[in-house]
Write a structure and sequence with these properties.
- By secondary structure, the chain is mainly beta.
- The chain contains no helices and nine strands.
- Strands 2, 3, 4, 6, 8 and 9 form a six-stranded antiparallel beta sheet that branches.
Length: 151
């Protein structure tokens, strides 16, 4: 799934992660490495961790890079447009999943920049979570057909 985020109004904190795949020969699913409280946790690298105030740039989160696992926390009343494609579909392996960070640590690289990592545990949908879904009702988009204007 690819995600487009646009903060429309207000101020919010955004924290975004990418899965760390320690074995490139593994399947598409993230590597499960550790058990905490009877649950598997997965290693993720923090890609963004900051406060944003509208107006600001649109962000694009790709399936395996850019912080596709993301958390929005309102600091002031705010609105965010979060466009996901293709849409969530449990049968196709694109279910909406919620995670909680159980620990965080830093690794210093040779260039003296610190990468931040966290262990994420899958959780139930938080009670305070609020999401409205609107189905795309526009024209059909066929991604397998070449664009005639590009010939």
């Amino acid at each position: 799934m690819t995600v487009f985020n646009k903060l429309l109004m207000g101020t919010m904190h955004i924290k975004a992660y990418d899965w760390v795949d320690l074995d490139p020969l593994t399947s598409k699913s993230p590597t499960k490495l550790l058990h905490v409280d009877g649950s598997c946790v997965r290693l993720a690298k923090v890609k963004a961790n900051g406060t944003f105030t509208a107006p600001c740039d649109t962000s694009v989160l790709y399936p395996t890079s850019g912080g596709n696992i993301h958390e929005f926390t309102a600091i002031t009343p705010c609105a965010v447009l979060d466009v996901i494609g293709p849409p969530y579909c449990k049968d196709d392996g694109r279910d909406c999943t919620h995670y909680q960070q159980v620990s965080e640590f830093e690794i210093e690289e040779e260039e003296e920049e610190e990468d931040v990592y966290g262990w994420l545990k899958e959780i139930e949908i938080p009670k305070e979570s609020k999401m409205d879904r609107i189905e795309y009702m526009g024209p059909h988009i066929n991604i397998n057909t070449p664009n005639p204007s590009s010939s």
